[in-house]
Design goal:
alpha+beta, Rieske Iron-sulfur Protein, 4-stranded antiparallel beta sheet, 8 helices, 15% strand, elongated, binds FE2/S2 (inorganic) cluster
Length: 373
């Protein structure tokens, strides 16, 4: 506990002192020497002061408008994937840069506005203060409160309604933008359109109108269609495949989308015929002979599990080293993943091509609020 100094005013005296008196007392007690202290605008309401005021307000208005633009971009900008050389690709590719640009300008203009306000309207002050150790005394606490009050009063915010309102606009839009950005992704209703193949419940493997879904190889040319047959894979081999529908053959946008959609990649693996395999209950007929198809999306955080070690049947995710056992229905054996890789039911059609017999029967990828496995 610090001792009350004898030379300090008592509580009754402090209560009687004006704010100016307390400011002076505070600076003196702290060993602060005010070398220079002057009002920047001794004559109020001059044209120069109003010009300075408009300059500061302009930054806040700019910040608010940028925040508003951020909200508009977030809500209305076309964000759905558009493939290369398709209509709307440019707008789609600008979605993320526009989010960054508008939010960046909002924060930057708000910061510049605050700095400009302090520079133009706070009293000019040059002070020298000695450092001291120990806890603050009651008088110090009182006087610092007065100092802060004085700073607020001399800042002129109270009587500069243009700046006050524009600052409120900028701060409000920033808060709305930040809140929207943080919470916007959480308000999507997972049940909305849950039958739609683009919903969170389905992947591009979802059958539609009874059309066959082939397993397609990615050759590097998004418009080339190469289907996969059993003889294309050696025993112990594996290949990443994507869905293909005959109705999409002449639709470049859909052909590209099928390769790019993040939940589409599937690993088609051919085990050796003498390999003992443990199948998951309810999925006993998902394989076609020695061929098994698993989602490539890691059930930990969604990286591609692309490293396959055929001797041990281990699939490795390079991100955090989760390992999945292909001999035991893609069960996680090591690392942070806790769920088995979803298996795609496959077969071979009358022409000898691999086809999917349906969509995955569970959501693919990392933690999903409705997933039970
Ligand atoms: S994303 Fe695969 S282990 Fe983390």
């Amino acid at each position: 506990m610090s001792e009350q100094r004898k030379d300090l005013p008592g509580e009754a005296e402090l209560a009687d002192m004006s704010r100016d008196d307390l400011v002076k007392l505070g600076t003196n007690l702290d060993g602060v020497e005010l070398v220079h202290y002057a009002d920047r605008w001794p004559v109020k309401g001059t044209r120069a002061e109003r010009r300075a005021e408009r300059g500061v307000a302009a930054w806040f208005v700019l910040s608010g408008l940028a925040g508003l633009a951020f909200v508009a971009v977030y809500l209305f900008w076309p964000w759905r994937y558009k493939g290369p050389f398709t209509d709307g690709e440019l707008l789609y590719s600008l979605y993320t840069p526009m989010l960054g640009l508008t939010l960046g300008v909002c924060i930057l203009a708000l910061g510049i506005g605050v700095l400009a306000h302090a520079k133009r309207f706070f009293n000019e002050e040059i002070a020298v203060q000695q450092r001291h150790d120990g806890p603050s005394e009651a008088v110090d606490q009182k006087t610092i409160g007065a100092l802060l009050g004085d700073a607020a009063a001399t800042s002129g915010l109270g009587r500069r309604s243009v700046i006050k309102r524009s600052l409120g606009f900028a701060g409000g839009m920033f808060a709305v933008g930040a809140g929207l950005f943080t919470l916007g992704g959480l308000v999507r209703d997972p049940w909305a359109k849950s039958d739609d193949k683009d919903s969170l419940w389905h992947t591009g493997w979802k059958p539609e109108s009874g059309e066959k879904i082939y397993l397609r190889r990615d050759t590097g040319d998004p418009h080339e269609v190469v289907l996969v047959r059993p003889e294309d894979l050696d025993a112990g081999g594996f290949e990443t495949v994507f869905p293909f529908r005959e109705s999409e053959r002449h639709d470049p946008e859909k052909l590209v989308k099928a390769l790019r959609r993040s939940d589409n990649p599937v690993m088609l693996i051919r085990l050796r015929s003498n390999q003992h395999v443990v199948k998951r209950k309810g999925q006993e007929d998902f394989n076609y002979g020695d061929y098994y198809a698993y989602s490539k999306i890691c059930t930990h955080l969604g990286c591609p599990t692309s490293l396959y070690e055929q001797q041990t049947g281990r699939l490795l995710c390079p991100c955090h080293q989760s390992q999945f056992d292909v001999f035991t229905y893609g069960k996680p054996m090591f690392g942070p993943a806790t769920r088995a890789l979803p298996q795609l039911p496959i077969t071979v059609d009358e022409d000898g091509y691999f086809v999917a017999r349906g969509d995955f029967i569970e959501p693919i990828g990392p933690g999903f609020w409705e997933r039970k496995s």
